[in-house]
Structure formats: structure tokens, C-alpha cells
Amino acid sequence: MTLLALEHVQTYYGEAHILQGISLRVDAGEVVTLIGRNGAGKTTTLRSIMGLVPPREGRIIFDSRELTSLPTHEVARAGIAYIPEERRILPNLSVAENLRLGLLGSRTASAKSNGALVDEVLGYFPRLRERYEQKGKSLSGGEQQMLAIARGLVARPKLMLVDEPTEGLSPLLVENLTTILGEINRRGTTILLVEQILEVALALSHRLYVIDQGRIQFEGTPDELRADPDIQQRFLGV
After folding, report:
1. How far is CA 171 from CA 14, 27, 163, 166, 168, in A?
2. Cβ pair 36, 76 in contact under 8 A
3. Which pLDDT belongs to residue 108?
4. CB 226 within 8 A of CB 202
5. pLDDT tens digit sequence for 11-47
6. N- or C-end of the chain: fewer Cβ atoms within 10 A?
7. Who's near 73: CB < 8 A, 6+ residues apart?
8. What share of the chain is helix, strand, coil (3-state, %, to 5)?
9. Smallest Cα–Cα separation from 179: which of 200, 157, 149?
């Protein structure tokens, strides 16, 4: 079942035409990765979905509902969590307090159920459990990224939009985060991922879209992308 569909989306920053007719779909239960060079339009695609940069043309359909003209808070309320590249955790709040902010978007209804949900999410991130009362600014870059994902996850989204989660992390942390995202997906959360590291994208994805200059240049499975060196060379610099 298609959970998210973009149909011929045209997005501008001022007069700069960034997304030039983007169409893609994410089926329930998938990890779909949007991959391409810097400036290709990957982050703008996520921001368009969230209503942060509303498209001038085209449609965005989520869970059989049109989101195209909705404000960002309504998009989030519909069941989409956005984890931006900048992470945007609150540095002077503790891990616990940052997670409680994420619970504001949760569909659970009681302190007891919310507590169980936080405990469940911390099961993915034992490091955050160890640092539960530490302030966000005291965490390492990798721990801050984990907190950003955990804060999105406690809202129990139907879809997570995750922008460049491995940016600036060590190879060991990249491997750890790849494993965590895979487990989150296996337990039922659909993910639309923006990623620069091809091997991470190939390892996690059910399908991939290659974007260049605001247009989709390739859609296919990891095996199909591996078998297409021309696409890799022209649009990914591999």
C-alpha cells in the first residue's frame, strides 16, 4: 500500500526553481532513500513534504490525505516525523526533557503509556539511557543524532523523514546508526531517508531514487542501482 506519494512537485526558493516535477512513492513498511550530490534537491524534497517550503505546483498525498497546502504542525499531526540534518535538539534540556517534547506529538494518552513508549524507544539507544539526565549540549555528535531520531520516534509516526543521519559521524557510529535504523524499520516504521553514503543507502533501502538538479534520474532497487555504473558515475560521482 502506498503511504506517501509526490506527484509532479514543483518547489521554489524565491525565483530559484529547485524541485522540477518530482514524483515518488513510499509504500508502507519500506525504507526508501533519496540520494544525490549536494544541492540536488534532497532536503528540499523533505521540507516540501513537511510544508516548510510549500510546493507551487503538484500534490503530496499521505495516508490517502492531501497534505500539499497544510501547515507544518498539521503535517506532523497526520503522522510524519521529521529529523533534520541539523538535529535541532535543545542543548540546555536533558535527554529526558528532549524526549518529553517529542511526546507532545504522540498519539498515546496517558503518563503510563508515554513512559512505556519512552522506555521502548530507549531500547534502541542504550547510550541515551545511560545519559538520560545529561543536557543535550554535553552529548557527542553521534549521541545528539540518536536523540534527534529517538525524539521523532516517541511520537509513534507512521513515517519518518530522516535527513543525512550519518553526516559527520565516525565509521563505527555510521555502522551503529545504520543497524538502528534498520531495526526501527523492521519493527514497523516506514522511513524516507536522505543519505550521501551510497553503501549505507544500499544496505538500508528497499528502493532508491537518484535525484539531480531537482529531477529524479533513477528509481530502482539496490541491486538495480549496483548494476548501473553509468547512473552511479553521472549522478553520484562513484
Report:
1. 38, 30, 18, 9, 9
2. no
3. 54
4. yes
5. 999 999 999 999 999 999 999 999 999 999 999 999 9
6. N
7. none
8. 40, 25, 35
9. 200
Distances (CA, A) of 199 to 1, 116, 178, 187, 206: 27, 34, 10, 22, 13
Choosing among 3.40.50.1000, 1.20.1250.20, 3.40.50.300, 3.20.20.140, the CATH entry for 1-79+159-238 is: 3.40.50.300
Residues belonging to the chain:
238
Whole-model pTM: value is: 0.94
User: Is residue 89 over pLDDT 60?
Assistant: yes
Q: Characterize the bridge pairing of strands 207-212 and 31-35.
A: parallel
CB-neighbour burial class of residue 150 (10 A; exposed 0-12, middle 13-18, buried 19+):
buried
Q: How many CA atoms lie within 13 A of 107 on its CB side?
A: 10
Joined grid coordinates for residue 159:
513515517
pLDDT digits (tens, 9 = 90+) for 214-223: 999 999 999 9
